[in-house]
């Protein structure tokens, strides 16, 4: 048993196991927090899997840049007013329903959790 312990210490296998567990715990926390935040801020108009008032959002980060997503989540109407072509297209496609201004309600960290959950 001592030989196995020495091999683990010398090869660094044990730290990788701890790191992997830590990463899984972090992902689980991000997903749970993201779910809670999504339910609070997004679910009145969005679902992950189907269109309600706004588009379905599962996997949205595959189609949109994270920086753009953060801006749109915070204040999508500002992007529409700035004539951002993607924001205007979404606005028009979904019957010109205004996206709420969350700029004073949601932090960047919370938006990261929401985007993580939607992935």
Question: Explain this structure to me?
Answer:
- The protein is mainly alpha-helical and 119 residues long.
- The protein has a single domain, classed as Cytochrome c-like domain (Cytochrome Bc1 Complex, Chain D, domain 2).
- Helices cover 64% and strands 0% of the residues.
- It is built from five helices and no strands.
- It is globular and about 45 Å long.
- Mean pLDDT is 85; it is low at 4-10.
Give the amount of beta strand, in percent: under 5%
CATH-assigned homologous superfamily: Cytochrome c-like domain
The CATH architecture is: Orthogonal Bundle
Which stretches are low in confidence, meaning pLDDT under 50 for 5 or more residues running? 4-10
Describe the protein's topology:
Layout: H1 2-11, H2 13-42, H3 66-81, H4 85-93, H5 108-118
Short description:
The protein is mainly α and 119 residues long. It is built from five helices and no strands. The protein has a single domain, classed as Cytochrome Bc1 Complex, Chain D, domain 2, CATH 1.10.760.10.
Features of this protein?
single chain, 119 residues, mainly alpha, Cytochrome Bc1 Complex, Chain D, domain 2, 5 helices
